[in-house]
Write a structure and sequence with these properties.
two-stranded antiparallel ribbon; single chain; 50% helix; mainly alpha; Glycosyltransferase; three-stranded antiparallel β-sheet; 444 residues
Length: 444
């Protein structure tokens, strides 16, 4: 179905799938509970642009309950050998039976989160267990290094190479622990977090994953944000002082080092000493343009980093961190948004030393808008004075759902996570009748 008809389509149909009660998990406070309603803020938000909160939430409800959940109920699990087979084309054919742990951990998280959030559906729990059993039996060594790829039966193809295999498995293990209470899942997640931290901080680490090898000791924004995103929910379910310190480090590295206030951007990669690469010019032989590829910004990652910092701030009760996350996201949206007529959105890769890259480089793919939506809705939920967030949500939401864009229904993280989180945030805003949470009530 083309996205152009998405909103009008859902307004006309009667839904067969009822909406189960939802136990909100994203955005809890330090006690693991939802925030109350502000007693200091009188402003209410009942509409964003010309759309009511209920109408916006209905778009996400339809995408979640009528498309996403049925899709993952239908297939994705390897019931014969264990683990997951998420690589399915538009005709329902499996495109590979090899199992990349970059995706296995993410799908473990998905099924565990589906179970935890939506009526404890036993099929989701069984799907999660199938992944957990396979991963812990075949895909990790005694140092808690998670393999990069295995065969369908679990034979190693590539042992440890990609740190994201470890990070996403930690994410999945934490959510599975919440679903089951199985202490082994929590213990493996914590030990894997310590091992991943050891690797990331090694002077020999080359930031492999999400791309090629970099110079030894390279620091990458994507590493900190994905690691933090695995640790924030884990720390909601278990207390570990060492893992707490690792989470603080991830936030500090993003805000203190990658963020460059003088340029108003966060560089994706830094030198081993956490300093930006020098602005050394060179001629790109293909384009004959002057560039410095070491000083680039990835707006896919800046959007994720912003809301992940904000969610961690909610967990630990740090309003200053929350505002820093909001500002981090806002500046990148304002700097990176382009309007090319029929094409609008954030430029994914650009270099602040070369402003022309804003007009020449590709715009982020449609599903990345979900990361932007989470950031903007979190800002509006807790800070009703964030008028900038309402303006950008109205603009980006209208473009994403009205402009005929296709969503990747087989995406294993960004699309399903985004639609669930947006659905949850809007639900809380509606329950508070559009008033802000009490997160900032006691801020100095």
């Amino acid at each position: 179905m083309r996205r152009r008809s998405f909103i009008s389509h859902i307004a006309l149909q009667t839904f067969a799938l009822s909406v189960p009660g939802t136990l909100y998990a994203m955005g809890e406070n330090r006690e693991g509970k939802q925030f109350g309603t502000s007693s200091r803020q009188n402003k209410t938000i009942t509409k964003i642009g010309n759309r009511s909160l209920e109408d916006i939430r209905e778009v996400f409800r339809h995408e979640l309950f009528d498309i996403t959940l049925p899709l993952w109920k239908k297939d994705g699990v390897d019931w014969k050998y264990g683990g997951y087979l998420p690589h399915i084309d538009e005709n329902g054919n499996i495109t590979t039976t090899n199992k990349s742990l970059y995706y296995q951990g993410r799908v473990l998280w998905l099924y565990s989160y589906f179970y935890n959030m939506f009526d404890n559906d036993e099929r989701f729990l069984l799907s999660a267990k199938t992944g957990f059993d396979f991963l812990t039996k075949y895909c990790v060594d005694d140092k808690y290094d998670w393999f990069t790829e295995v065969t369908r039966e679990g034979e190693p193809i590539t042992k440890f190479f990609d740190i994201y295999a470890s990070i996403y498995t930690i994410l999945g293990l934490g959510e599975y622990y919440k679903a089951t209470g199985i202490e082994e899942a929590c213990d493996i997640a914590v030990k894997s977090a310590y091992r991943a931290n050891e690797i990331i901080l090694s002077p020999h680490y080359q930031a492999q994953g999400h791309g090629p090898y970099y110079k030894p000791g390279t620091k990458r924004l994507g590493t900190w944000l994905h690691f933090l995103n695995a640790l924030t929910p884990l720390l909601k379910y278990t207390e570990d002082s060492g893992v707490e310190k690792i989470a603080r480090m991830c936030v500090r590295n993003m805000l203190q080092y990658h963020w460059q206030p003088d340029l108003g951007v966060a560089f994706e990669i830094l030198q081993p000493n956490f300093l930006p690469h020098p602005n050394d010019f060179f001629i790109d032989e293909e384009t004959k343009s002057t560039q410095n590829r070491a000083r680039w910004v990835n707006n896919f990652h800046t959007m994720e980093a912003a809301w992940m910092i904000m969610e961690e701030a909610l967990r630990v009760g740090n309003t200053g961190m929350f505002r820093a996350g909001m500002d981090f996201g806002r500046v990148h949206i304002e700097k990176g948004w382009v309007d090319r007529g029929s094409e609008k959105g954030l430029v994914q890769f650009y270099m602040p030393d070369y402003p022309e890259t804003l007009e020449k480089n590709d715009i982020i793919k449609p599903y990345v808008f979900k990361e932007m939506f989470i950031l903007l809705l979190l800002a509006l939920e807790h800070d009703p004075e964030a008028d900038w967030a309402a303006e950008w949500f109205d603009k980006s939401f209208g473009y994403a759902y009205d402009a005929g864009l296709e969503w990747p229904w087989r995406d294993t993280l960004h699309q399903p996570r985004g639609v669930m989180y947006c659905y949850e945030i809007l639900g809380r805003m509606i329950e508070r009748n559009g008033k802000a949470s009490d997160f900032f009530d006691n801020a100095s």
